Amino acid sequence: MLVRLGLTFTVFIIDMLVWGGDSLTTAGHTVPVPLVVVVAAVLYGTLLSHKHPLLGYGAMLVLSLGTLLVPAAANLAGFLLALFLVARQSPAATARWALVGASVPVSANMIASLNFHAPVPVGFAFLNLGLWCVLVIVVWLAGRALGRTAARLRAEKLRSEAAREEAIVNERLRISRDLHDSVAHSLTAILLQVAGIRALHSDRTRQEVEPAELERVLSDIQTTAEQSMRELHRMLGMLRERAGSLEDTYTGKLSEVPVLVASAQAAGLAVQYQISGLIQPVDPSIEHAGYRLVQEGLSNAMKHGGPGSKVSVDVMWTRDHLRVSIRSHSGITPISDSVSGGFGLIGLRERVSVSGGSLTAGPTEDGFLIDARLPISPESTSLPPEVRKT
């Protein structure tokens, strides 16, 4: 607003100085100088309207016709500013019509120069006309160029804001799925452990449970519950925060898979875990995806496998990819799937797909298979080979 006010005041002063106070009319009369100044000031004030540039343009167009009454009172500087504002702020069609309308003040100034002023050489008059036409075109082009630049910047800003909002939504969705995967896994282990204790107590044909054994199971339940609560608080804290790098939001590494295996074994699931190949440093998102694959596979086995189910977890490193395979073999009587949230495999497919990998998941003859290939950088430095079985 201050810039527009400064420009308006500047062109008003310029036109007043060019006018010089000559208020002689074409009929040989004089117009009071204060009246000319007041009328000009009011009409120039319309240039301050930011939302309606055509208002100022129309006022300058009308004022330019005043030169046919008071030949010395030209307002070409004010009209150039009005033309610039219309060209910058209006649609292309409106701007083109404004350029055509510039012929009115230029023609009025030409007529006043030839008919009402002192004798002016025709050549000089047409040279003056040509200079004003060039100036009008340059001002109009400058307005159009700045208008297109401003429109492009606004569009880029809107796209940037939309992309930022989409990134926030996607990140929160990812965090919510991580929360589901982690907490669902822990709660499943707790449910199975509690169910096992209840089954032992309800079976009167068996001996009483040893206190040490009961203490071990209850300790496992407490540890799993505490871990789940810590994960829950951490995830909710991340949802409240907007700052922080994406890498910091990745939780769960392949080095933590043995903890998942131990938790599943404590819940009564027979798990065989094997790592083979050359272990390599990988992107946190790839390592996180591998961790979630194992977590979801073990959770599904505990939920749906039934008593006596077995699971084999294989993590295989090659030069180009990391393969994670979780194969479950169902037991005698699968348990109810009422505790299944239904989002685990959907989230895994999206996570693996975004990572550039492939995922195969589906039932087999005697269980369920989750098999994924995740790409790794071939330039990664290999560590010594390690083969581990539990």
Largest sheet: 6 strands, mixed
**Which outline best applies?**
rod-shaped
Q: What is the N-to-C succession of helices and strands?
A: HHHHHHHHHEHEEHEEE
The figure for the number of domains is 2
Secondary-structure map:
Layout (H helix, E strand, L loop, with lengths): L1 H18 L13 H13 L7 H12 L11 H14 L2 H10 L1 H13 L6 H81 L8 H30 L16 H10 L3 E7 L7 H21 L5 E8 L3 E9 L14 H11 L3 E6 L3 E9 L12 E2 L1
Parallel strand pairs: 1-2
Antiparallel strand pairs: 1-6, 2-3, 3-5, 4-5
Structure in words:
Pfam families: HisKA_3. The protein is α+β, with helices and mostly antiparallel strands. The chain folds into two domains: 2-120, no CATH class; 161-389, Histidine kinase-like ATPase, C-terminal domain (Heat Shock Protein 90). The chain has helices at residues 2-19, 33-45, 53-64, 76-89, 92-101, 103-115, 122-202, 211-240, 257-266, 284-304, 344-354, and strands at residues 270-276, 310-317, 321-329, 358-363, 367-375, 388-389. It has a six-stranded mixed sheet, with helices on one face. The relative contact order is 0.07. Mean pLDDT is 77; it is low at 242-249, 333-343 and 378-390.
